[in-house]
# Entry
Amino acid sequence: MRYKRIIISDLHLGSKASRGDDIANFLELNSTDELILNGDVIDGWSLKRGGQWRKRDTKVLRRILKYSQKGTNIIWIKGNHDEFVKDFLPLIIGNIKVCDNYFFESENIKYFVFHGDVLDFFITKAKWIGILGSIGYDFLLWINRRYNWYRSLRGLPYYSISKDIKSGIKKATNFINDFESNAIKLAKKNGADTAICGHIHHAEIKDSYMNSGDWCESCTALVETYEGKWELIEYHKKVE
# Structure
């Protein structure tokens, strides 16, 4: 399927949680005029903690480069896990642009795309707490992978334990609501109508706010059709 625009975030390549095969398959099955990678593309935090770069991670980068070779405009927005690129910003290589945030206009609507970590106190003010939380989240995703491996043996569909836990905890729900509200305020402050984020691994489409989710558990992408309609796609192919 070809789209006017595809937005994905939180690939976390280099971490055990990253579903690299799903990402590569999704990119192979779809094409677009513009691909926006909204932060945490490469998980520098995980690699520093001893994470391993695998063939599936390289496969994803090759798919992205193939997009570029075919003329797709690629925007890579810096996230907190791939902050190692900050010293090179802004960086433009052919059809690939690496930046802090990105503006575009479509169907007379102005969009402000940013990863979302600037809204997170634990990342901006107390980074060590954010790293600690990341380790706990990695453990939760490990449980999620083991559980879905068992479900696949029984012929059952993919199920996200961590997503269910987040939706059932009041504090997590409040955090997501506050995140959305602050994202909209920041977009308005920058002269845009709609905010598009990643970071919190919670996919959403609303009038003034959208989130592309992640590729560790939900495996979601925001896509814009040539008619200007936004859709949220969830893609699961392989349980690891």
